[in-house]
């Protein structure tokens, strides 16, 4: 066994550090020349990214502002109070908690607060677009709750309201989850809000994918439509850091107490202060720029769906306008299936993911790919660029152009789109997102 003091260890580890940095730089270079279409990804603004490497990263602040278990948190308290106020303002709600460190952790907090082990909890099935946290091998299983599935309308990509009323009345869950990972259209929550009240169920909305669209007024407004609690991650259509958030509209102090206690000490200890600070910046920037950003994100998604459909792709919900969100779903069974198609696209610089579609049975070999427009919108692309992206899909998957040729065309399209938009210090004042600065050891 090699001793830590063995001569040459320092040089060996320095080489390891250089190798790690080289890999990260290669990744950054790849994405600088790629068109990322992952619906669950986005880019931080320069100010938010700066705070991710601030001294906040190195500190602890367990508890609430003004009630910490550690000293030295005066500025942390200032930033967190601002973050909470911005969240309440942006989402027009009475309650916010920014201590969950991810969307799944936020989901766990809701489950801990509002569902006992063994209790029924309403949700959609994975094949109908639900997130893995609502599966038995995800957060639902960890909490030990029993999923009660809503009947699904695949033509509308929403739950069936009448069938869901029956399910709620039969199962009488105290918690009913709405929100999806394949999220094309608003869900008809208003149509079942009276049934939620009738059975005493708290409406819970997982807004991870559509949080920025909700804030920008481009999607549904769940807190005004029948839901009491929102959980979400903060880095998809809300272009913030990878963090989590809880939001609510309630005058019930016991409910607030349960949610706060579930957030801390229930599912978090220290809540990653650097990402909390970056989230505060993202919320402020979304108040300033989010309406325009959300509108263009949806326009781009619909334009991409239409352009793909026009080139012979089987785009889901074509008769409904393809999407009302940031996401487009394409059934690519004829092109080789979701797994193979996602790999071919990625090799050509078009980064997407395979995805289950209604009727699929294997998550590893689904029939679909999921495409999203948050990141391409963030770097200034518009409807015209979506048509060009669809053309590149057609070239690669239908016309048989080589991967190398398409990759070169992808890089050419991306060349003028590497600067963050819809934020402060955009344009000439912002460094390019994909740059990595620092000297090798």
Describe the overall structure.
The chain is of the alpha/beta class. It folds into two domains: 48-283, Aspartate Aminotransferase, domain 2; 289-429, Aspartate Aminotransferase, domain 1. The chain is built from 15 helices and 17 strands. The longest helix is centred in the middle third of the chain and has 38 residues, at 273-310. The protein is globular.
Q: Would you spell out the secondary-structure blueprint of this structure?
A:
Blueprint: H1 9-32, E1 35-36, H2 46-52, E2 63-64, E3 67-68, H3 74-91, E4 95-97, H4 103-114, E5 120-123, H5 139-143, E6 146-149, E7 152-153, E8 158-159, H6 161-171, E9 175-178, H7 193-199, E10 202-206, H8 211-215, H9 222-225, E11 229-233, E12 244-248, H10 253-267, H11 273-310, E13 314-315, E14 327-331, H12 338-347, E15 350-351, E16 353-355, E17 368-372, H13 374-378, H14 383-397, H15 403-414
Parallel strand pairs: 1-15, 5-6, 5-9, 9-10, 10-11
Antiparallel strand pairs: 2-3, 4-12, 7-8, 11-12, 13-14, 14-17, 16-17
Helix pairs in contact: 2-11, 3-11, 4-10, 11-14, 14-15
* Number of E strands: 17
Computed CA radius of gyration, to the nearest angstrom: 22 Å
Give the low-confidence spans.
Answer: none
CATH superfamily of the largest domain, by name, is Type I PLP-dependent aspartate aminotransferase-like (Major domain)
Number of helices: 15
For the record, the CATH architecture of the largest domain stands as 3-Layer(aba) Sandwich
Mean pLDDT: 94
Number of domains: 2
